[in-house]
Design goal:
Length: about 280
């Protein structure tokens, strides 16, 4: 069977599922698949055959629909997510990949924000993926100063399940930077949840080893780079947590608790932002 015949059969299987389950499937991604053979090729590469690849893409379409991905915008998230730069897109790595950074030390398990955080993560990932025209991206996870207070096994299980069931090969690698030794036990537990066929995507480095992946002039200053691109900018349409929480119907006590938790992180980012002008 020719490569184009495989793609055509794959597309037919997905469109057949879409026609029977429209309410559960993301329309925008179906349209992207119809226009872009590259998306299909990545799922074929991950699953090695047409049926399993199509099933994986259907799972992805349902996952994106469940998290309302096509209807999300910056306005759906509190301004503090952007002000902390907890997840952001930046300069390319040495391989030419678009790169998404995650600063895990700023993550805390917050009941009110559980789904919102997960939406934010996949929203940012999708933006980087679109920017690369679905050609591949890299994720660098900054683990500096991460401790047990940043650990959330429910979130880890969700992430690994999504990674296994929905992720094609458009993620070229995930770099874990400066994993604290005390957190190695936690990492071993998380690693056990990872699909074995994706384990090769995980890479580790410490200190100046990060320059093997990203040139100094393209790396954020907080990681020892020289790039002055401001990744702390807040979109004008975003509301600060106090107003965001009020719109969600949260009590003042709930809002105050989150603000208190985030205060040291925001102060740290304010100090980091000043370094961009030095």
């Amino acid at each position: 069977m020719s490569e184009q015949s495989k793609i055509d059969e794959f597309r037919s299987l997905v469109l057949e599922a879409y026609e029977s389950e429209k309410e559960f499937i993301d329309d925008d991604l179906v349209e992207s698949m119809e226009l872009n053979d590259c998306i299909i090729q990545k799922y074929l590469e991950r699953r090695k055959n047409i049926k399993d690849g199509a099933e994986m893409l259907i799972n992805t379409l349902k996952f994106c629909n469940k998290h309302n991905l096509s209807h999300l915008s910056d306005a759906n998230f509190p301004a503090e997510y952007f002000k902390m730069g907890i997840v952001f897109d930046y300069k390319k790595d040495k391989q030419g990949n678009d790169v998404m950074y995650i600063r895990h030390q700023f993550y805390r398990k917050i009941k009110e924000l559980d789904m919102i955080w997960r939406q934010f993560l996949i929203y940012q990932m999708d933006k980087v993926d679109r920017k690369s025209n679905r050609q591949g991206m890299a994720i660098i996870v900054d683990l500096n100063n991460v401790g047990l207070e940043n650990t959330d096994m429910d979130y880890s299980r969700w992430g690994m399940k999504a990674f296994g069931n929905c992720c094609p090969v458009s993620i070229n690698y995930i770099l874990l930077y400066n994993l604290p030794r005390m957190m190695s036990t936690v990492w071993n537990i998380v690693k056990s949840l990872m699909p074995k066929d994706l384990a090769h995507l995980m890479k580790f480095c410490n200190g100046d080893e990060i320059f093997d992946y990203v040139d100094k002039e393209n790396l954020p200053k907080f990681l020892g780079g020289e790039c002055r691109l401001n990744h702390y900018q807040v979109p004008k349409i975003c509301l600060p947590l106090a107003e965001f929480g009020q719109q969600k119907g949260w009590s003042q006590k709930q809002i105050d608790k989150i603000e208190k938790m985030w205060k040291p992180y925001l102060e740290k980012c304010e100090d980091e932002m000043k370094l961009l002008d030095q």
